[in-house]
Amino acid sequence: MTFLSSKALQFSVRLAFHASLSGAFLVAYLTGDEDTYHMHVFAGYLVLVTAGLRILVGLWAPDGSLLRLPQPQTAPLCDWLRRLVAGDPSVIRGRSPLLAWLAAGALATVAIAAATGVVADFVTKAEHLHEALSEFALWMVVAHVAVLVILNWLKRVRAPAAA
Ligand code: HEM
Ligand code: HEM
Fold first, then answer.
1. What are the pocket residues of ligand 2 if the criterion is a CB atom closer than 6 Å to any ligand atom?
2. pLDDT of 1 over the 70 cut
3. Relative to the CA of 54, which ligand 1 atom is closest?
4. Looking at the CA of 16, which ligand is closest?
5. Which atom of ligand 2 is found nearest the CA of 127?
6. What is the pLDDT of residue 161?
7. Does residue 3 surpass a pLDDT of 90?
8. Residues 9-18: contacts with CB under 8 Å, at least 24 apart
9. Interval 123-147: pLDDT, tens
10. Which of 28, 67, 99, 115 could potentially form a cystine with 61 if both were Cys, beta carbons 3.0 to 4.6 Å apart?
C-alpha cells in the first residue's frame, strides 16, 4: 500500500500544512520590526520550511491525491472570465478555475517572500525588496481567501433560484 493513500490522511496532512503556513505567515508578517526580530526569523523560517515541504510533497503526490498542488490552467480561466464579464450566471456553478490560480499564487508568493527574508538577513540592500514581496504575498493571500468566501456566498444565495 502506498504511503498516504487514505483520503482522510491526505486531507489531514493538507490541512496541517495549510494551518502551519497560514499561522506562521501571519506571525512573520506582524513581527517584522526590530523589537520582535527573533520571533520574525523563527516564524519566517517556519514558513520557508513548510512551503518547501508542501511543494515537494505536492510534486511527489500521484494523480488524484488531495496532496497534489493546485493546477492553474489558462484556457478554462479565460473562458470563466469571459462568462463572468458577460454576466452569465453559470460562473458560480461548479468549481472556478480562478481558485487554483489564487491558491498556487498564494503558495508561490509566500515562499518567495520567506526566501528573500533569508537574503535580507545577510544583505541589507535586499530588505526593501523583501518587504515589498511580503506585502504582495499578503495581498495574494487576501485575494485567495476573499474569492473563496465570495464564490461560496454567491453559491449559497443563488442556489434556491437555480434549483
Ligand atoms: C499563507 C497563507 C495561505 C496559503 C499559502 C494558502 C495556500 C493554499 C493552497 C496551496 C491551497 C490548495 C490546497 C492545499 O494545498 O492545501 C489552498 C486551499 C484552500 N485555502 Fe488556502 N492558503 C493560505 C491561507 C488561507 C486562509 C487564511 C484561508 C481561510 C481563512 C484559506 C482557505 C483555503 C480553503 C478553504 C482552501 C480549499 C479551497 C478549494 O476547495 O480549492 N487559505 N490554500
Ligand atoms: C513569509 C515570511 C515573511 C514575511 C511575511 C516577512 C515580512 C516582513 C516585513 C513586513 C518586514 C518589514 C517590517 C517593517 O519594516 O516594519 C520584514 C523585514 C525583515 N525581514 Fe521578514 N518576513 C518573512 C520572513 C523572513 C525571514 C525567513 C527572514 C530571515 C531569516 C526575514 C528577515 C527580515 C529582515 C532582515 C527584515 C528587515 C528588518 C529591519 O528592517 O529591521 N524575514 N519582513
1. 25, 28-29, 32-34, 40-41, 44-45, 47-48, 110, 113-114, 117-118, 120-121, 127, 130-131, 134
2. no
3. 15
4. 1
5. 37
6. 53
7. no
8. 10/61, 10/65, 10/66, 10/67, 11/66, 13/57, 13/67, 14/66, 14/67, 17/50, 17/53, 17/54, 17/57
9. 999 999 999 999 999 999 999 999 9
10. 67
Ligand 1 mean position, distance from CA 18 (Å): 6
- Can you say whether residue 94 is alpha, beta or left, with left for phi > 0 and alpha for psi between -120 and 50 degrees? left
- Report CA-CA distances (Å) from 29 to 45, 50, 93, 104, 147: 12, 16, 35, 19, 21
pTM above 0.85, yes or no: yes
CA 53–ligand 2 middle distance (angstroms): 21
Nearest to 80 by CA among 64, 91, 67: 91
Which numbered atom of ligand 1 lies nearest the CA of 26? 1
Atom of ligand 2 nearest to the CA of 110: 1
pLDDT of residue 163: 45
